[in-house]
Amino acid sequence: MPHTIWLEARRRLREELLEKDYETWIEPLQAVRCVDGVLTLEVASGFARDWLKQHHLAALERVLSEVRDRATSVVLLVNRALDIPPRAVALPPRRVERPATASPPARYTFDNFVVGASNRLAYGAARAVVAQPGLRYNPLFLYGSCGLGKTHLLNAVGNALAVERPLGTVACLSAENFVNEMILAIEGRRMERFRRRFRGIQTLVVDDVQFLAEKRRSQEEFCHTFNALHEGSRQIVIASDRAPDDLRGIEEALRNRLASGLLAEIEPPDDELRLALVSRKAAALNLVLPPEVVTALADGWAGNGRLLEGALTKLDAYATLAGRAITLPLLREALGPPRSGNGGPSLERIIAEVCQHYRLSRREIVSPRRTARIAFPRQVAMYLCRHHTDVPLNRIGEQLGGRDHSTVAHALGTIERRLATDAALRDALTTLRARLQA
Question: Which of 18-22, 263-267, 333-337, 382-386 bottoms out in mean pLDDT, i.e. has the lowest?
């Protein structure tokens, strides 16, 4: 009797859950007995038991209640004789292209997100989404340059919602992994299962949606998934390195859907937030920094959270291995000259290098003239400014003759298309990037 019940429950769970989650946590369970509305399942370790209780128990009891048509609870007993290790910890995934979309990294929470003027709107909107999923700011679209906290906020949303919702109802993944999942489903002739899984969830959290550019089949499938969830008032949270209107290679229909909710830009941190970021990340590494070192790090390395983490790790290792206290001279010795505020060259520096390379004056490159001799280097400058700074498109356009953001977006698309076939352009960009990094 318990085996028959468990067999049907496993079949339903397999259709509902990600394959990796099912194989890791559900498949190894053994049904022992079912008495008075309680099904007893054996697990291989205390770790597996605790993980199942925290992340899977609600889903197990829900499905079993559906199978038996009556309320059913689950008791988990440890049976080490099963000798089945929890594969999610002991073994690498069988298929690296199949991510655990329902389990965002636990280190990303709202509590350890550092809030400032540049990210307050995005932070507040993310908290509002958790408070009323599907009702406010749907979709929520976060955008900004890398290292500013988009991924942190996405995973904080996923973690907060996963606490209140059954396993399998919150999917947190990158657009690249969505595409990989779809490819595997096509190859295995499992597209219906793929669609049921993604369109049956309660919350979809997708990072780096710009990865869908030029992938028409993936965009079509993502658009259908988006429509199904949105029409059912289920929450969608998306992040990208640029606003929907600036996403080249994305079909207009999908761009319009992405822009239909709240757009929240995360801008580069101001001075106050930079100091707070240094203090918070140093504390996470148990580093005690003198005030002058905190200030130096905030000025030179805190424009990008990932660069700051790398700088702090290197500084800690350098001081530990040298057996020296962290001081301002040691910082300069370990990290070299300070980086610019955004971790890269300034707009002025980029424009100057492009002018020198193409033998133009600053007056020419910002002029209204559209001759090929001037217009093409101007587009190259826009491209480099976009990829080497955190500056918004409208500010880039202002620096290059008062042009609007749509002109800059057009230039980005032009350069990206030409890179595929223009060897001379690739060589020019390689040369210019080497100069900018010097």
Answer: 18-22
SS3 391: coil
230, 202 Cβ separation under 8 angstroms: no
Q: How many alpha carbons fall within 13 Å on the CB side of residue 326?
A: 24
Cα pseudo-dihedral 59, 202, 140, 218, rounded to 10? 110
DSSP class per residue in 67-85: HHTS--EEEEEE-GGG---
Selection from 144, 153, 382, 120 nearest residue 268 by Cα = 144
CA atoms within 13 A on the CB side of 343: 21
Strands 73-78 vs 203-207: parallel, antiparallel or unpaired: unpaired
Q: Specify the pTM.
A: 0.57
Which H helix or E strand runs over 409? Answer: helix 405-419
Helix (H), strand (E) counts: the chain: 21, 8
CA 139 to chain centre: 16
Is 126 within 8 Å of 237 (Cβ atoms)? yes
**Bridge-partner residues for 75, per DSSP?**
40
Give the pLDDT score at 228: 92
**pLDDT of 123:** 93
pLDDT in tens, 245-273: 888 788 899 999 999 999 998 888 888 88
Q: Which two tokens stand for residue 317?
A: 């290792």
Residue-range domains of the chain with CATH: 2-85 (3.30.300.180), 120-265 (3.40.50.300), 271-335 (1.10.8.60), 347-437 (1.10.1750.10)
pLDDT tens, residue by residue, 356-365: 899 988 888 9
Closest CA to 25 of 100, 106, 80, 97: 100
DSSP structural state of residue 115: P
Give the tens place of pLDDT for each residue, 118-153: 899 999 999 999 888 888 899 999 998 777 889 899
